[in-house]
C-alpha cells in the first residue's frame, strides 16, 4: 500500500475518532470519515489482545488483502480495527464481515475487483 494511502498522524486518528462514524461487526470495527482527498487513506489496527506480534501482523496482512477485493468510493479515511476473535477466523469470514460493514457504511461500490 502506498505511503500516501496510510493514516499515520495522530491528529488524523483523533479527527477520525472524534468526528467519524463507526460500524461494528463481531470480527471487525470500521470507522470512516470523508477526508476531502481524491483517494482513501487506511489504517489497519490490531491490538495486543489478538496475541503476539506474529499474530497481529498476520491479522493486519489478512485485513489489507481482504480490502483489496472491494472497489470503494474514494475520499474517505477508513480505520479497520480487528476484534479479539478475528485471528482464528478463516479468510472467507473476514471477507464477508468486511463486505457487510462496507455496505452498511455505504462505502462499497457494487463492482469489486474479484468479480468476473
UniProtKB/TrEMBL annotation:
The keyword Transmembrane helix does not apply. Keywords: Endonuclease, Hydrolase, Nuclease, RNA-binding, tRNA processing. Pfam families: Ribonuclease_P. One of its GO terms (molecular function) is ribonuclease P activity. InterPro entries: Ribosomal_Su5_D2-typ_SF, Ribsml_uS5_D2-typ_fold_subgr, RNase_P. The keyword tRNA processing applies. GO terms for biological process: tRNA 5'-leader removal. It comes from the Bacteria. It is an enzyme of class 3 (hydrolase). GO terms for cellular component: ribonuclease P complex. Its EC number is 3.1.26.5. It catalyses: Endonucleolytic cleavage of RNA, removing 5'-extranucleotides from tRNA precursor. Belongs to the RnpA family. Consists of a catalytic RNA component (M1 or rnpB) and a protein subunit. RNaseP catalyzes the removal of the 5'-leader sequence from pre-tRNA to produce the mature 5'-terminus. It can also cleave other RNA substrates such as 4.5S RNA. The protein component plays an auxiliary but essential role in vivo by binding to the 5'-leader sequence and broadening the substrate specificity of the ribozyme. This is Ribonuclease P protein component. It comes from Candidatus Thermofonsia Clade 1 bacterium.
